[in-house]
Write a structure and sequence with these properties.
This protein is mainly beta. Helices cover 5% and strands 39% of the residues. The chain has one domain: Beta-galactosidase, Chain A, domain 5 (Distorted Sandwich). Strands 6, 7, 8, 9, 10, 13 and 14 form a seven-stranded antiparallel sheet that branches. A four-stranded antiparallel sheet has the order 1-2-3-4, with no helix packed on it.
């Protein structure tokens, strides 16, 4: 089996900080080196590209060559606000914009159990939050919040956690995955390398995609 392309960040014999920003293939990547695990996130898409508990093989597959512009293949991409093709806008990118845009890292912390990160994306009148807990296992929790125009005077926003309008699709090498209530949790298992769909058939509905399109036609980036 070929070495994971992001294991290059963990070859130094010197003591490394738990969190370190690096530049790799024209992207900012956050390198995480904790006593329990090693991991790499890209700022683009808040995408977990590498995760390896100590003493185990890498859990996620990642392409060695990344395009100069566009999505990074591998890891756990956030496919939002739709999965696959948009139901009405053929020119819009497959799997939405979330995996193509730089997210903000709002918080990062470390303790004996691992590391925790909070990523956030603001897109038109939507807010997307990704919470990650990495240690001996990994847990990713994605939530979305929509700014309601009709209720803005009464309260700032209406929020609910749901899994239908987004999709976390992982390229896993040595793990099984469970999804519940918008979460993806992985436990180790030495299976053959394969691409695993983790959405439990939770695809975005035409109604939700259309609602997004009506608010966003003039504001969204073009890719």
């Amino acid at each position: 089996m070929h070495e994971h392309p992001l294991q290059r960040f963990f070859k130094s014999l010197r003591e490394q900080p738990v969190f370190a920003w690096e530049r790799f293939q024209m992207r900012d990547v956050l390198v995480i080196d904790h006593p329990l695990c090693q991991a790499v996130f890209s700022r683009q898409g808040a995408q977990l590209l590498h995760f390896q508990p100590r003493g185990q093989k890498p859990w996620l597959w990642c392409a060695a060559k990344w395009p100069q512009v566009g999505a990074i293949r591998g890891g756990v991409p956030v496919c939002w606000p739709w999965y696959g093709r948009h139901p009405s806008e053929n020119a819009w990118p497959s799997h939405g914009w979330a995996r193509l845009i730089d997210w903000k890292l709002l918080d990062s912390s470390t303790d004996d159990d691992g590391v925790r990160l909070h990523w956030q994306l603001q897109l038109c009148d939507w807010q997307v939050d990704l919470h990650a807990h990495l240690g001996e296992t990994l847990e990713l929790r994605l939530s979305t919040e929509h700014q309601d125009e009709h209720e803005r005077k009464e309260r700032d926003c209406r929020s609910r956690e749901y899994f239908e309008p987004h999709h976390q699709h992982s390229y896993q090498a040595h793990a099984k995955s469970k999804v519940h209530e918008g979460r993806q949790c992985c436990g180790n298992r030495d299976d053959e390398s394969r691409e695993i769909d983790t959405c439990n058939e939770a695809l975005i509905s035409d109604e939700t995609a259309g609602r997004f399109g009506n608010h966003a036609r003039e504001e969204l980036p073009r890719h």
